Amino acid sequence: MPLDKSYFSNLTSYITRLQKTKKPVFIYGMGDGCLKVLKIFEEYKIACAGIFASDEFVRDKVFCGHKIHRLSEIEAAVDDFIIVLAFGAGYKELIEKIESLSYHHELIVPDMPVIGEGLFTKEYMLENFDKLEKVYFLLADEISKQVYKAVIEFKITGDIECLKRVHTAPSEAYENVIKPSQNEIFVDLGAYTGDTVAEFLSHTNGKYTRIYACEPNKRNFRKLSESTASLENITLINAAAWDCDTTLIFSKGGGRMPHLASEGIETKAVSVDSLLDGKGCTYIKYDVEGAELKALEGSKQTIVNFAPKLNVALYHRVGDIFELPLLVNSLCPDYKLYIRHFPYYPAWDTNLYAKRNGL
Fold it and tell me: Measured in whole angstroms, how far is the alpha carbon of residue 132 from the centre of its chain?
């Protein structure tokens, strides 16, 4: 069956709910996420009744002119209100905390892009429906189709129940989609401190042919070097993944998500095609903080010539959910495409997998 355009068209968007509600609306969380939510509120004329944080982060703080409250203070003063989440929840205890909030209060989780501008509104969905539907028809199994529909619904409604019904563990993707062998040549783009190398090895009994691990952040790269020091046949590259070999400017902020900026730290960038220099690989992972499209374009010859299995983060930019699958399909029409969503609110751990028949 095709995607049901009328179904998505008839959904009430979280923006409309917030515009029409008579309940006070409180933002949960500070930092960049809160700034993004406040920008949405300003653009769509949504009133913010206040901001609250977890108890350990309050300490008489003020953020953007709002005194930071405890949830208990708001509950004592207000009978009924809406909570808008302004940060990502990706580990078990925090996910359970967010789900518990949804049992006691009306909760909205806007699916803001990690990088870049724009929102996946209902209008945006309708403008790009043909592309979304094309991706849907390319998906190779029923789980992928259910995940795709659920993620689109979530992006419009901000309702975490959409995601809860399609959560799967990362191990399911490894076991049922990637199915790594003990002879893989693995290219890890966005290797961070070595967590995804370790995850890969846990599914191959520690056996492989070669690993290439790229990480642009110098502090993360040091930790990557330490965590992989005992491994043989591994090449570490302190560089970002791009469509060519060049120098990029990254933000000065550390941590997991350095991103392109007009000012900051000069960072080496490489393409997969250049890195491999005509040699093949069997599996590439792309989690490069919004540069997935560029990194895929920089893998064109490798994909065309060798058709390695692909694992591509599908959530950093607003258009990733259809632009990246369509690009992968254009590079290798023989690929079967799969999508999985791992436990995370908002939909920031939705991933595309591609492999040829028989792999």
Answer: 17
Q: Is residue 49 part of a domain?
A: no
Question: Per-residue DSSP letters for 137-148?
Answer: HHB-SHHHHHHH
Number of domains within the chain = 1
Share of the chain above pLDDT 70, in %: 96
6-30 pLDDT, tens digit per residue, is 999 999 999 999 999 999 999 999 8
Is residue 249, in this structure, part of any structural domain at all? yes
Question: If you write DSSP's letter for every residue of 67-98 in order, what string do you get?
Answer: EEEPHHHHHHH-SS-EEEE-S-B-SHHHHHHH
What mean pLDDT comes out for the span 276-297?
97
Query: Taking all residues of the chain, what is their mean pLDDT, rounded to a whole number?
Result: 94
Characterize the bridge pairing of strands 25-28 and 82-85: parallel
Q: What is the dihedral of CA 303, 305, 309, 312, to 10 degrees?
A: 0
Helix axes 142-157, 320-331, angle to 10 degrees: 150
| pLDDT tens, position by position, 148-203 | 999 999 999 999 999 999 999 999 999 999 999 999 999 999 999 999 999 999 99
Q: Which of 279, 301, 294, 306 is nearest to 212 (CA)?
A: 279
From the centroid of its chain, how far is CA 74?
Answer: 31
Q: How many CB atoms lie within 10 A of CB 167?
A: 16
Residues 69 and 77 sit within 8 Å (Cβ to Cβ): no
Single pTM value for the model: 0.94
Range of the structural domain that residue 269 is part of: 170-355
Question: Is 84 inside a domain boundary?
Answer: no
Q: Taking 90 as the threshold, does the pLDDT of residue 262 lie above it?
A: no
DSSP state, residue 249 = E
Report CA-CA distances (Å) from 86 to 260, 276, 288, 319. Answer: 22, 40, 22, 20
**Statement: residue 56 has pLDDT above 80:** no
- Kindly report the CATH number assigned to the domain that includes residue 252: 3.40.50.150
Q: What is the DSSP letter of 192?
A: T
pLDDT (tens digit, 9 = 90+) per residue, 202-255? Answer: 999 999 999 999 999 999 999 999 999 999 999 999 999 999 999 998 776 644
DSSP run (H or E) holding 288: none
